[in-house]
Amino acid sequence: MSSETKIPDATIERVALYLRPLEKLMEKRNQVVSSEKLAEMCKVNPAQVRKDLSFFGGFGVRGVGYEVHDLLIEIKKILASDREWRLGIVGLDDMGMALLYHKNFLKRGYKFVAAFDSDPQKVGKKLPIGLVVQPVTKIKQLVKDLDIEIGVITTSPSRAQDIADIYFEAGILAILNFSPIQLRTPECCLVQNVDFTLNLDHLAYKLSQ
Amino acid sequence: MSSETKIPDATIERVALYLRPLEKLMEKRNQVVSSEKLAEMCKVNPAQVRKDLSFFGGFGVRGVGYEVHDLLIEIKKILASDREWRLGIVGLDDMGMALLYHKNFLKRGYKFVAAFDSDPQKVGKKLPIGLVVQPVTKIKQLVKDLDIEIGVITTSPSRAQDIADIYFEAGILAILNFSPIQLRTPECCLVQNVDFTLNLDHLAYKLSQ
DNA sequence: GTCAGATTGTGAATTATTGCACATAAAAGG
DNA sequence: CCTTTTATGTGCAATAATTCACAATCTGAC
User: Fold this and answer.
1) How many domains does chain A have?
2) Is there a single domain that holds both residue B68 and residue B136?
3) Cα distance from A70 to chain B (closest Cα, Å)?
4) Are B202 and A192 inside 8 Å of each other by CB?
5) What is the SS3 assignment for B67?
6) 3-state SS class at B125
7) What angle do CA A90, A94, A100 make, to 5 degrees?
8) pLDDT digits (tens, 9 = 90+) for A119-164
9) Does residue A143 share a domain with residue A179?
10) Range of the domain at B161
């Protein structure tokens, strides 16, 4: 299928989802996987898997399935996850620290290259991952100097918009926002919000049905 | 609209999203809000807001808008978020701790009533929120004794399935899984997975476009 | 070399979601 | 009390996403 076709957001989301099972299959030394198997592992429909993948080209072999290794590489290429992405983070309370130490990020090429906090007590402290805590006043400069592409926000909601504005001004490309507010953002900057409470709300709703 | 109509999942997700802006409007002492304003705050379409809300009944007043306070109450009722939900958590590394200390949960009625870890070093320690760390061997008993309804999993992926199985056996109603694996689950138990890497993958994809 | 079995890729049918557009109703002003 | 303004609730059309179903094609066995 041509790369000109508009690819549904939902497809992108699922394609990213396929990575984990594929990594697991790699570990288990499975050379090949069928759409049926992969679908089962992700709890989706096999036709969906095939259609999703066919948006990006025919990676499979009829009668056989998909080469696990090749598919993994292809999907990473599709997602631009086949390279390192440089992250900064602002707000080093519990959640910020948990993200900094989270090993899955680095495994997938998401690398924290700077960590900021407004608390003078924290500034200057050396973190186990080798970074030194920087004051928020340095965000603008360091985003540029260190080529930070994605900015993570784990501050309190009251500070989140100010931090976002500094990120924007510094020319950041995207923001991953853990603060429970809707950020006002310029067109050019992508934002993804993360809010676990929404997951719990959804569970609560379904449980009450 | 009748409560018999099948309500789209997407609607539930959005309705939960409306809570934060409404809380903000409450703080700002706004009595009334229009679908247009609310839509703008959530970056959705005004007609969507009206349709979403109309699934549950006509909460608005034509020519006026929606009473902020009443709508907040109604949505909480809809989501069954108008009461306390009792949570347990297994895996008290950084992420587990960050969730335990996360104030937003409690504000919304999600209350951790037990915390478990398999590390004997951690078991018995008193946590600032007033809980004592329990060994994983006690999960089954305490889920029953303390009426734990939702089980959070923040263990390493290698342990996540075992912990889930213990939760299921104890009769837990739902699971919030932060471990990057797809859990095998009985029909009766709801699962929501949380994986930030997927958010980053999505950003990476869009940035590469 | 042919046939049986397996599994992809995709057009078409189905199902779900979104958003327009307008009838409806409340409020405010004169 | 009538008119204007505002903003909801909703039928319907348009759009989008999912799933079916089957032709295409590869593998391996005999």
Assistant:
1) 2
2) no
3) 18
4) yes
5) strand
6) coil
7) 55
8) 999 999 999 889 999 999 999 999 999 999 999 999 999 999 999 9
9) yes
10) 85-198
